[in-house]
Design goal:
By secondary structure, this protein is an alpha+beta fold. Helix content is about 60%, strand content about 15%. It has helices at about 1-25, 50-70, and strands spanning about 40, 45-50. A hairpin with a 2-residue loop joins strand 1 and strand 2 (about 45-50). The longest helix is centred in the first third of the chain and has 23 residues, at about 1-25. The two termini are about 20 Å apart.
């Protein structure tokens, strides 16, 4: 039973972090507009892929999660 409690706390924390990011994400300057993010406009078609932003967020989450779960 304690394992389920720990899992619920972790999932709840993850949902909290995602909710804060979605709420405050648009207010963070340069997020999604970094050099290296791909943006192509051709007529009525707009393709956008924030590859550098994804890499930085992945690196940040890796460091944070390793700090919390390292034993």
């Amino acid at each position: 039973m304690p394992e389920i409690g720990k899992l619920l706390i972790i999932v709840g924390g993850f949902i909290l972090v995602v909710g804060l990011f979605l709420t405050l994400g648009l207010r963070i300057p340069y997020l999604g507009k970094l050099p290296g993010d791909i943006s192509i406009d051709r007529g009525n078609v707009h393709f956008y892929f924030p590859i550098v932003t994804c890499l930085l967020l992945s690196l940040l989450l890796t460091v944070v999660l390793n700090a919390f779960f390292r034993r």
